[in-house]
Amino acid sequence: MIMDEFKAEHRQCDSLYAEAERAVVGGDIERAEKLFGQFVEETVSHMEHEELRVFSRLEAEEQAGLDPIRFEHMQIRALLEKMQQLLAVGDFSTFLGWGESFMILMQQHNMKEEQLLYPLCDRLMAEDAEQDGIEIEGCCLRP
Is-contact 113 6, C-beta < 8 A? Predict the structure, then answer.
């Protein structure tokens, strides 16, 4: 189901960020840059998957409530860009400060998705599958 797949991606991204932050605090800047770059790549990819699979599915049903989530995606992308710049110029203290705000935003954002959007999308997919005689396997619809 969508919820299981995307929740796992949230945890993976959280883990990457925590590793990058530990590397900054520990002074291993090369490792921090590598991990943070990987974190940014995976986070952006995750948001793009959500926008394609979840948002498009909910929009097809004219479900309300996506505007705040879309806005948060824009905020997250902007924060990630700013944090990459801070890391690149060696402003580690400011990077860590922005990281605190970033993590609060991400935790609230992920909670909204996991408690509201993903279950709704899974329910709609299950209803579609039932109507169309399609078996749901993992997160994918299979004829």
Answer: yes
